[in-house]
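Sequence, please.
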């Protein structure tokens, strides 16, 4: 059974505080006919105190056209994705040639070939490594990618794709790099754009997975991945996502989204746990995607959980904002400092579709 053996978050060059974001919003929206009360309330009540960024505050406010932005995305995803994966390998330490699979996830830019080609070469991964880039799952991508990486570990070495030197490899890597700052749209003054600009942050996080009988690092006590489930809610594809225009990515964010996410969680989580032979009270560690304070609280209240269930996700939101697919991995890092042997955990992430990803963990 697959287990997380190491996890590393790259330290990005800039941290934008709430006060800095407030100053940027003042420069952006003053004189644009947007009520100051509306956006000030968005900043003051979103539970975010800081967030990572590959750009300085001024650079984030003066972004170039989409073509240049995407070049920035390609370079930054390669640089900071490489730093995250390098850190995860060093945490073992694990040799790069031990990786038989690399699952990479990002939804905040476009690169063909995918950035994992340059990252794999720079770190000395085998030229035969199986690369699985995942691009269009949005905030749910981290949970989905973790489930896929675990399946690759569980299938190895009997998989048909593991011949020759890959048969001797015994690890898989998951890499999430989200550069949401590059999606800022100065000319888009819609409520959705203002909310997105207030909450999304950048992050680059990697983890290493191995088999259940590989000794984990004592300081990590990495969890096993014991089950996963994906679900798409019918007729909700227009409620969340990106609208790709000539100017870049513009957020799609329906007002009904918090309610839809809560209702899906309340329906799907009990059934998933029942299929595992678990009950709600058997789960000690909850890792809910840090989409917003409102969504986290709605899910916790809807499931009838205690306030403690929301704390790890609120902590991630406070320190990182919403870093899209990387948020779940930061949540795992948070709970691993407290989890003890025998604890059970549940990852709950949501993204465009409207999709829900559930992953069951056991320490």
């Amino acid at each position: 059974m697959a287990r997380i053996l190491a996890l590393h978050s790259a330290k990005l060059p800039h941290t934008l505080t709430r006060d800095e974001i407030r100053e940027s919003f003042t420069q952006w929206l003053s004189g644009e006919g947007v009520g100051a009360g509306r956006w000030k309330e968005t900043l003051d009540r979103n539970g975010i105190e800081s967030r990572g960024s590959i750009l300085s505050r001024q650079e984030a406010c003066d972004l170039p056209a989409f073509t240049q932005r995407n070049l920035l995305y390609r370079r930054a995803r390669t640089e900071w994705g490489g730093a995250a994966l390098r850190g995860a390998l060093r945490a073992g330490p694990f040799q790069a040639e031990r990786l038989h699979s690399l699952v990479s996830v990002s939804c905040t830019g476009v690169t063909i070939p995918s950035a994992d080609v340059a990252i794999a070469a720079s770190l000395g991964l085998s030229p035969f490594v199986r690369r699985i880039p995942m691009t269009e799952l949005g905030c749910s991508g981290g949970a989905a990618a973790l489930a896929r990486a675990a399946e690759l570990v569980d299938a190895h070495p009997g998989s048909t794709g593991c011949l020759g030197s890959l048969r001797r490899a015994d690890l898989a890597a998951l890499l999430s790099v989200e550069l949401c700052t590059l999606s800022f749209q100065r000319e888009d003054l819609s409520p959705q754009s203002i909310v997105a600009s207030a909450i999304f942050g950048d992050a680059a996080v990697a983890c290493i997975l191995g088999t259940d009988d590989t000794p984990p690092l004592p300081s990590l006590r990495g969890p096993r991945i014991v089950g996963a489930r994906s679900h798409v809610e019918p007729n909700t594809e227009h409620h969340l996502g990106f609208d790709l225009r000539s100017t870049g990515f513009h957020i799609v964010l329906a007002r009904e989204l918090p309610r839809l996410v809560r209702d899906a969680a309340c329906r799907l989580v009990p059934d998933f746990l029942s299929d595992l032979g678990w009950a709600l009270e058997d789960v000690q560690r909850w890792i809910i995607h840090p989409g917003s304070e409102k969504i986290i609280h709605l899910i916790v209240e809807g499931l009838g959980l205690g306030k403690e269930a929301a704390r790890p996700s609120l902590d991630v939101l406070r320190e990182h904002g919403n870093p899209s697919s990387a948020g779940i991995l930061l949540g795992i890092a948070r709970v691993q400092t407290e989890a003890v042997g025998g604890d059970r955990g549940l990852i709950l992430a949501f993204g465009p579709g409207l999709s829900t990803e559930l992953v069951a963990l056991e320490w």
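The radius of gyration is 20 Å.
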